Amino acid sequence: MYDLIIIGGGINGVGTARDAVGRGLNTCLIEKGDIASQTSSWSTKLIHGGIRYLENYDFKLVRESLKEREVIKKIAPHITKPINFVLPHVPSLRPSWMIRIGLFLYDRLGGKSSFEKSKFINLNDHFKENPIKENFISGYIYSDLYVDDSRLALLNAEDAMKRGAKIYLNTKIVKVLRDRSFWLITLDSGEVLKSKVVVNATGPFAISVLNNIFKLKSNKKLRLVQGSHLVVKKIYEGDQAYILQLDDKRIIFMIPYQNKYTLIGTTDHEVDNFENPKITDEEKNYLIKSVNSFIKKEISESDILWTYSGIRPLIEDNNQKASKVSRDYSFEVDDKDGAPIITILGGKLTTYRKLSEQILKKLNKYLVFSNKKWTSEEALPGAYDKIINNRNIPQRIFKRLIKTYGNKISKLNEFYDEFDTGGELIFDDFYEFEAKYLIKEEMARTSEDILFRRTKLGIDFPKEARDKLEIILKRHL
Ligand SMILES: Cc1cc2nc3c(=O)[nH]c(=O)nc-3n(C[C@H](O)[C@H](O)[C@H](O)COP(=O)(O)OP(=O)(O)OC[C@H]3O[C@@H](n4cnc5c(N)ncnc54)[C@H](O)[C@@H]3O)c2cc1C
């Protein structure tokens, strides 16, 4: 019998699994698709305090998030990177004093910080290239943390497994039975799992899973808000990102992405369906129009190389504007008529680790285990603090690999050695040995798992190369 079954392999589910198994709980996780196949891979990829939440007086969330920024930078240095954000000043929207107070708080709310403090700048003086129109003269600069979102989830899952958690991917729940002291969960394979507690970590699906699979009612509601991004060819040279204030009081980001692209997003588009969201024409036009009101070299629809959309599971608070609804999280516990089920509502990538600790605190009521918090101290797989020894992998490929896999590179070296010069070339610097590594070591099953989650090479991956990858997948699965 498991102590705990977690349903959902997004960041909140895998984070909880890692924490729980590390404290000695017999833990299992069931995911209907791949790790991070929903919201957790379609984010803006920032571990951030959320400067704009200060406007909603969400100080608690900003403080917690800023503290987490420090922790995640420490436990996942290989998949994170501090970035400077430039905020061009738009006097008609927010006066200088307001921005200065906001940044003053942002620099200090999280306590001791390793990030550069914010400052006032002249937009032309600071960077290799200033992509912003001449009518914007000055602005502010502050720092936040970029993260590879789906790999953050994957590494939490991998570590949970290493510590003894059982993870089922691509698995559907077909039946659920509740007893006084345990749950029986039947999987599509026919296997029946028994657990003392269930955690429903299904993100946007949470209420629907509670109602339709567990036949339970919820007192809370989720507001499902689609957010979409555009990826275009690099708009400007330089590592700095931009946070652009729009006339409707929203903000959008413009972030350098994978050395050759610029990522633009996001939108707040309310929906009532959470399966496979796609960007709408309205969202595309909104993002293009918004970014064009700031940049010198304007873009058009023909510049779009790729788009993606995800659904934010926000806790409904009857606030009219989606952008104003808090990004905080809460839980709903149902333990009156049998074994307990805890449902996670809301949350951000940034706060997943704290959210997991809160879940563990709730589990104390039902299970006996170590109360020692540990996830802020133990690095995620691949984290390194010294130069990694490379053996044979050519330097051209090594540079990307080290940023993706960190010190797991020694394992990749073993796969490289199995083949003559890394095996078949699939595309650009992606060879058969890496595909095989991802299948054997990182649970990849499809080309989508490989191209859009374990690596992010999918954006300009040609059809013929993808066909080749499919053949290689069959060879090694
Ligand atoms: C556009 C956008 C931008 C964002 N940007 C940021 C950002 O920059 N920084 C930040 O901190 N946060 C950001 N967020 C928020 C963050 O991405 C989400 O809060 C977070 O990923 C939610 O994680 P989750 O685990 O709760 O949900 P999900 O990632 O959606 O995971 C839920 C999982 O449950 C699975 N599931 C559903 N039903 C079942 C079932 N019946 N059986 C088994 N499995 C099931 C799903 O397949 C899914 O994998 C952004 C969100 C969006 C939409």
* Count of discrete domains: 3
State the distance separating the first and last CA atoms. 30 Å
Helix fraction, binned, reads 25-40%
Biggest β-sheet, characterized?
10 strands, mixed
The strand count comes to 20
Bound compounds, each kind once, are:
flavin-adenine dinucleotide
**Highest CATH level, the class of the largest domain:** Alpha Beta
Summed over residues and divided by their number, the pLDDT gives a mean of 95
CATH homologous superfamily descriptor of the largest domain: D-Amino Acid Oxidase, subunit A, domain 2
Secondary structure tally, helices: 12
Please name the CATH topology of the largest domain.
D-Amino Acid Oxidase, Chain A, domain 2
**Coarse structural class:** alpha+beta
Please state the second-level CATH architecture of the largest domain. 2-Layer Sandwich
In angstroms, what is the radius of gyration?
23 Å
Shape: globular
